Predict the structure of Putative Glycosyl transferase group 1.
Amino acid sequence: MSRRSYEPQWLHQSKLACQRNRWSGYGRPGHEHAPYRHWAFEGGSLMVASGNGPTVGTDGAAKLLSIRIAHIGAHSGYHCLTRYVGEPITIGGTRWASGRLSRWLTVGLCTLARVPWYSPGSFALEVRGGATMLSSRGLIYHVLQADNDLWLTPLLATLTKNRVIGTVHQPPSEIERAGGPWANWSRLDKIVTVSRHQAAYLQSVLPGSQVEFVPHGVDTDFFTPPPDRAPTLDRAKILCVGKHLRDFDVLERVVMQLSRRSAGCRFTLIGLPANLVSRFRQLGATCPVGLSDHDLRDAYRSADIMVLPLKESTANNALLEAMACGLPTVVSAVGGVLDYVVAGSAVLVPAGDAEAMSEAVVDLLENESHYRSISLLARQQAMRFRWEDVGKQMSDIYASV
């Protein structure tokens, strides 16, 4: 089956626009799981800003611009930073249009912005931020998802004599595949990254820019360990969470290999792309959808091990949340994973190696002392990334701009 045979028409048109603007990577075969986040579509309908406009504070607090992403809960994701520092300017979404109009509006905005992750929601957020800038001078505006939501804000900040920083979340390989880095990133007063290898890359390709690494946080008050776990290989509960940059071919082999080792292994795979659900259900996996925050936390707490096969990574919500729940995790040693894992807080395996991942799972399940040690150290390591502490680090960044 060709990739075009199951692609939505709007996505195909967006890729053509990307290619016309030299965004070559997103038209290549083998990139089925590209992060087309913030297209702001739900069931084919366009999502635009809703809610009241922002209130401009008088205390000089930084203004944090973000979109509330429907599939990310209140206790997950980078928007949690807004609880601990600055003043949020956040938009949600309501249905505005559907069909051809909404699709072409998305394609048109991506073409104008020359950013394949840009969306009508991104534009609405920048308009709202720009309106706030008209009433302020010398304040810092922080675009929390600069990969997706940054086009006009640096220009608006210059015109209104404000300052703007942006956090970049995508790894270097995804940035280059999408045709970046983009010129407006060099106009930021500071670029924040969530992994060190991102920072090194951006410093090399944007030599005049100020780049700082500030780790992603995790809600350690919400994601907490269960009273106890007593795993065994013959009835192990194995979890995998998320889809962005996951290696599903490796995951499939891991499921098959562990099922052969023990028929009692049970697999719960959360957040699979829709086109892969039937494939993994045929292997006996459970693939729940529409989970609440509490359901997700219960999944971490009730699992015995999490496997996280990755192609690339910066910060990873699933990894941090599993560690906060004391869940031993076997994860691919790629990219930013190494900024969040220390020896003994998770098991690192080579990327693309299903056999190594499967063997690591078996080793953990057959070695109780090793299992419990990793569970304890995982929680301790996650505590280093509490949002309260990340907020303090971000406050220092604001003070330095």
Summary: The chain has two domains: 3-217+386-400, 233-385. The radius of gyration is 21 Å. Residues 215 and 391 are 10 Å apart (CA to CA).
